[in-house]
Amino acid sequence: MDQCGIQCIEADVMDRHTLHEPLDMVDVVYDLASPPPGATAEEYAKFNSIALNNLLEEANEHGAKVFVYLSCLDVYGPGPVEAGASPRPRDEYQKAKLDAEKIVSDFGKEKPDMKVRIIRAARAIGPRDTTLTVPLLKMVERGKVILPAGANTAISFSHPKDIAQSLLKAATYVGDLEICMVKSFDATTEDYAKKLSNATGKKAEVKSAGLFSGKTLLPTYTTEQIRAALVLKQQETWNKISYTPAYTIEKTAEEVSEWNRKEPWSTQDLA
Question: Domain 1-121: what homologous superfamily?
Answer without folding.
Answer: NAD(P)-binding Rossmann-like Domain (3.40.50.720)
